[in-house]
Specification:
Distance between the termini: 49 Å
CATH architecture: Up-down Bundle
Helix content: 55-70%
CATH superfamily: Glycerol uptake facilitator protein
Mean pLDDT: 91
Low-confidence stretches: 197-207
CATH class: Mainly Alpha
Length: 207
């Protein structure tokens, strides 16, 4: 929105980096309060992999979608009028776009599961790793689908821009991709056995 309304104010290649930095900053700011759940699809992935209570899912989804809509409303008020509101629109056919959003969301959730749910990961680097995968997804998938990888992020600008024709892609893709990403990491998660698990063997090994 800023790029459209103020041509030359931002270099387009910087936008994915801004996305990643924004996500990383908010994770470090709010992770210890709410878990920094900004993505309904990621929250679903956590719930399916039993790292989030199902009964809290509706309240988090309401907060996420409402937060995105309020953010766009604030930008609508603060910025000069324009045509674009950051809506993600596929530049390929629907099935290919769906596959792109699903795959990008898979890797997003896989990385999040690894750094945020596994105690062996370096916890202090979680925000940086998640911000990095968001940046990579935006660079790689941005030209194709806009790389929403977040239903709330896709819905809010689509409402203001009146571009709801492809919104199902940005719901189905991220929800499916994050579900698969979370369940895949749980499947391959490799826990070291404790002495209690292997009383006749030295601790070590894997799975």
């Amino acid at each position: 929105m800023v790029l459209e309304r103020f041509p030359g104010a931002l270099s387009p290649p910087l936008i994915p980096i801004i996305f990643g930095l924004a996500v990383a900053t908010m994770i470090y700011s709010l992770g210890h309060i709410s878990g920094a759940h900004f993505n309904p699809a990621v929250t679903l992935g956590f719930a399916l992999s039993r790292h989030f209570r199902l009964k809290e899912l509706p309240s988090y989804w309401i907060a996420q979608f409402l937060g995105a809509i309020l953010a766009l409303a604030l930008l609508y008020y603060l910025l000069p009028s324009g045509i674009l509101y950051g809506a993600t629109i596929p530049n390929t056919n629907s099935l290919a776009a769906l596959a792109w959003e699903c795959i990008l969301s898979f890797f997003l959730m896989f990385v999040i599961s690894a750094v945020a749910t596994d105690t062996r990961a370096v916890g202090i680097m979680a925000g940086a790793a998640i911000g990095a995968i968001v940046t990579l997804a935006a660079y790689i998938g941005g030209p194709v689908t806009g790389a929403a990888i977040n239903p709330a992020r896709a819905l809010a600008p689509a409402l203001f821009q009146g571009s709801l024709g492809s919104i199902w892609i940005y719901f189905a893709g991220p929800f499916l991709g994050c579900a698969l990403g979370a369940l895949t990491y749980e499947k391959i998660r490799c826990k070291l056995p404790t002495p209690a698990d292997t009383p006749d063997k030295k601790p070590g090994g894997c799975c």
